[in-house]
């Protein structure tokens, strides 16, 4: 049997795409090298319409329309997160995002980014210095908070319930392009397992960069982000983005505070972690702390690298869009839209025979 789609990686992007495609009646399998929920349970669990610094970087690198498209994708991702949470009875917290990621920006720069984000359809306003705990002007917009592990578990469960076949603890060993389809060979992650299993699909979505097109989409070496969880300090009621270093994000988690340091190379992470610790002691008076770190993919001017490859049947997402809640959800929605042919301006989608069969399957389910 030829499946419609094989997804490599049970990341937020991979599971989001799988859930949407399976819900539409398409046959989907997900292959993941880790234990259940581990690949998607990364990041800080914050989603918003955009980050001011990302929008400014994207507009400078690719033009204003690319920045507006980034906002539109994130808004679609926010609706997807709300839908997943509602269907899974998962608690979502909505707070304000106070965005100072442009640093001490001039009014004209703040207003320019404000207009770009607003033109993308987002609810956003200027945050005057007198209303900010940082005593500096910035941008204010809604943000969603969720526990990454809880969200990963619910997303995995919903993708499976929709009909996606999810295999964890497997390693993809070979990908071979056939006439009109692609073979994906994989092996179980067991010390005694030597037998190869093979799936064939019309399209392959790669969120782990193990395929020819996913490898091409790689944009550099992994980056490290030092983290600190603070206990016994005053917990803010909002999420704050800073220009950094030493701190990039301040996020409330129940009775604790999560701090994220800057993205850096492996050899720099110890120095960045020490600077983050000193900042926490100065700003919060924090003594009871739990250090950690995230390992993420770099992105291109803040933009996850997502799309269809020159190799027929190949789709990919790289950059921090493959796993993290905000960009991962936006990337997964976009990839699903490409495969479903929602955007008529793009020529990539699943074969008509698959669409007819999926449509018949949806009708039968409704009876």
**How confident is the prediction overall: mean pLDDT?**
89
The major β-sheet equals: 9 strands, mixed
The number of distinct helices, counting runs of at least 4 residues, comes to 9
Q: Based on Cα principal axes, name the global outline.
A: globular
Question: Your description of this structure?
Answer:
This protein is an alpha/beta fold. It is built from nine helices and 17 strands. It folds into three domains: 3-42 and 150-219 and 302-366, FAD/NAD(P)-binding domain; 51-145, no CATH class; 223-296. It has helices at residues 12-23, 52-62, 64-87, 107-119, 148-161, 212-216, 269-284, 325-340, 352-366; strands spanning 2-8, 28-31, 46-48, 93-100, 125-127, 138-145, 165-167, 170-177, 182-188, 196-206, 223-231, 239-242, 249-253, 256-260, 288-296, 305-308, 314-318. The radius of gyration is 21 Å and the shape is globular. The model has no long low-confidence stretch (mean pLDDT 89).
Question: What are its keywords?
Answer:
367 residues; alpha/beta; FAD/NAD(P)-binding domain; 3 domains; nine-stranded mixed sheet; eight-stranded mixed sheet; 9 helices; 34% helix
